[in-house]
Amino acid sequence: MRRILPFIPVVVLVAMGLLFAVYGLHHDPQVQPNALIGKPLPVNAWTPLNGGQPTRTAPLLNGKPGLVNLWFSTCGPCIIESPQLMKLKQAGVNIVGVTWMDLPGNSAAFLDRYGNPYSQVLVGGEDSAVEFGITAAPETFIVNSKGMVVDKHVGIITDEDVPRLIEELKTLS
Q1: Rounded distance, CA 168 to CA 97, Å?
Q2: Is residue 125 part of a domain?
Q3: Alpha carbon 165 to chain centroid, angstroms
Q4: Tens place of pLDDT for every residue, the chain, 173 residues?
Q5: Which domain holds residue 132?
Q6: What would you measure as the largest C-alpha separation in the chain, in angstroms?
Q7: DSSP-assigned letter for residue 108
Q8: Ramachandran angles phi, psi of 29, nearest 5°
Q9: Model's pTM, two decimal places?
Q10: 40 phi and psi angles, rounded to 5 deg
């Protein structure tokens, strides 16, 4: 047994090297998970920011195409994205907001400061990230009139994205 002990660290190191070589070098870090595309919106019910009974996201779109945007109040990219979401709202796009691991008071203050582009804001927790399969905020889901996710926008919605999203939603009507 004493002769084997010095080789254990070497074996562990070789195993880790093989794992890196097999998985790490063949894994594209740019690939974003799109598990919800082609599936209905999550069925979890979250409490509206303005109070009331817990509700699901899909009925808030009223059977029309729209966006579901996950964000939180201390998210720098979410602040940068706010003007573009306001432009989408002004263009008649129905946007449902789901806060991610945020205190309701902080979310309300954020909306007071940067504007509220949402038809409804639901207070999500850690479960919202799991249910939507998000990796960071903001993330926006494009939803058809049947409540099915047809596309996902990861990161900040830019000025260039606004017309594309409006057009994409028109094709879903």
Answers
A1: 19
A2: yes
A3: 16
A4: 667 767 777 776 776 766 666 655 655 555 455 778 889 988 888 899 988 899 888 888 989 999 999 999 999 999 999 999 999 999 999 999 999 888 899 999 999 999 999 999 999 877 787 888 887 899 999 999 999 999 999 999 999 999 999 999 999 97
A5: 32-172
A6: 74
A7: H
A8: -70, -15
A9: 0.80
A10: -70, 155
